[in-house]
Design a protein that fits this description.
The complex is a heterodimer. Chain A is of the alpha+beta class. Chain A has helices at residues 4-7, 22-45, 47-54, 59-87, 128-133, 157-185, and strands at 14-18, 89-93, 96-104, 107-114, 118-124, 135-142, 148-155. The longest helix of chain A has 29 residues, at 59-87. By secondary structure, chain B is mostly helical. Classes of the chains: A alpha+beta, B mainly alpha.
Chain lengths: 186, 80
């Protein structure tokens, strides 16, 4: 909960903390693991040709250096995929929606929108895995200049959309009452 | 025999390692600075470093035994 607090106002309550479905990072890691098997497949299919090449004393050191770099960078890409997955967070509080997105190593976007400005919430399931594992996209249409807030590949998008709709309705009611109270006072 | 030293490949390798270390630093920095849970970030970083050291160690076992002073021939003089 440590860094969430930095984005919160006093007395603001966190209702939902969302990040992408674990399947997303699992699929990425699986892809990189398959890439890790490529040199082995290459070795098995071209065993004879490679055996001739490896008999050359000068060729082997170059292959060793290449394989070392190959696996180091593969490991770096896996780690970067995890960092990218782990640092993308959407927070729904009783007042606002906060979108924290790590788009690259030097590109971090934090945007927020007040709940009473939300006009429409839509959930979307697209594709086989998305339907089977129940993860998808939640589109949040606001009245602001930014057309949409998008929660990408979050688990149970329908439930999330319903929860946000309920919160928006409550928040709008609360703000209406506040405005009426102000009018009575003036 | 005209050629170039095998050590050129070794220096290119060191260049790639330097870039690897640079990106490793930035990834770890982001995880420490912005990671929601210090415990998860710490475990991920330690695991990443351990595996990286393992890859380096295996690589070094082979690299250490290579004679980098060898020359790769590009032109072979013909004796007539």
């Amino acid at each position: 909960m440590r860094p969430y607090r930095a984005h919160l106002k006093t007395n603001e309550k966190i209702i939902l903390v969302l990040r992408r479905h674990p399947f997303i990072i699992f699929a990425k890691i699986l892809f990189w693991l398959m890439v890790a098997l490529l040199p082995l497949i290459f070795h098995l299919t071209l065993e004879k040709i490679l055996a001739d090449l490896f008999s050359n004393n000068l060729f082997l050191p170059i292959v060793i250096l290449f394989l070392s770099i190959y696996y180091l960078y593969l490991w770096l890409f896996i780690f970067h995929s995890f960092v990218d997955y782990y640092l993308d967070i959407w927070i729904v509080t009783d007042e606002r929606i906060i979108n924290i997105e790590q788009r690259g190593l030097f590109d971090r976007v934090v945007s927020e929108q007040k709940l009473y400005r939300v006009q429409d919430v839509t959930s979307e399931l697209k594709g086989i895995f998305s339907t089977m594992l129940d993860f998808g996209t939640v589109h949040i249409q606001t009245a602001g200049e930014q057309a949409r807030f998008i929660f990408k590949q979050v688990p149970k998008p329908y439930n999330v959309a319903r929860k946000i709709t309920t919160l928006v309705e409550e928040n709008k009611k609360f703000h209406r009452l506040l405005e009426q109270g102000d009018e009575i006072h003036t | 025999m005209v050629g170039f030293s095998l050590s050129i490949f070794y220096y290119v390798y060191l260049g790639f390692v330097l870039i690897f270390l640079l990106f490793t630093f930035f990834n770890i920095y982001h995880l420490v600075r912005f990671g929601p849970s210090l415990a998860v970030s710490t475990v991920a970083i330690i695991f990443y470093i351990v595996v990286s050291i393992f890859i380096f160690q295996i690589s070094w076992q082979y690299i250490a035994n290579v004679d980098w002073e060898q020359t790769i021939p590009i032109l072979i003089q013909l004796s007539i």
